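The authors assume throughout that readers already know how a fold can be written as discrete tokens. Each protein is reduced to its one-letter sequence and a matching series of backbone shape codes. I therefore recommend that a typical entry be quoted early in the introduction. For illustration, here is how one protein appears when written out as sequence plus structure tokens:
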Amino acid sequence: MSAADRLVPVNAIDMLVAEEGRGPLVILCHGWPELSYSWRHQMPALAAAGFRVAAPDMRGFGRTSAPLDVGAYSILDMVGDVVALVAALGEEQAVIVGHDWGAQVAWHCALFRPDVFTAVAGLSVPPGRRGSGPPLEMLKAQGIGNFYWHYFQEPGIAEREFESDVDRTMREVLFGRGLSLMVDPGRGFLGAAGRPEPLPAWLREEDIAHFVEAFRRTGFRGGLNWYRNIDRNWQLTAPWQDARILQPALFIAGARDAVIRGPIGEKRLRDMDAVVPRLSKKLIIEGAGHWIQQERPADVNAALLEFLQQLPR
């Protein structure tokens, strides 16, 4: 069974889903600014090993619906989409895997619906304890008001920057060397324009073209709206204060990933064993950065398959 794309109605939206293989269901959730295409190296490997793999364009991305309301991008909406996707695919349970924002969705799927999601793997973004206050406010209380999350809050500002040259945006975000998680006033997220970097070995011109075509068509508003619900997500998740993820779990990240070295990531990395007591492995891949499943597909595939094959069928 080869990979195929189809639109699936879920949770009052239409979700584009790429599917491949037969067997136990594994759902792959991408992050920002990405697409189901980001899992192009994992889908055939998992399918060949006897799994049914489904990789959606997440809410607001690609060919999936992008509601206009900023409030339609909460973590409850994202988890609801994936729960509905499992049912729409004719299944009752699945293993959930996510990268970047998709990892946040995966951890919360496991936390909210352990009856549906029997195991979880997160890439690049560790799970976090629910803190004592809204994350953006807590950062400001620490004197940090220029984290990139803050820059993304006002609708239209980041969109104008990213959409003015989508090709440059994708190149800078995926492999630019000048990006910082702290945004200097007046410079924007991408910083000053410089000479274009040569493509790294893990990325082809046709890969860049795939992302550029999609984001030229959709813009960046949908994905940025995920960030505009960060403090609201803290409010919505109050019932899960101090809750733990009890399913079998795996974490993979690149050693050079700024997300696990930033003000939030380092703490989450330290706290992970307490939040996810059945963590089977915390794999930090030397020399790799943030886009781990694209940068180091062989290592990621091997770790995912080892994890999946240890689970009860």
The chain has one domain: 4-309.
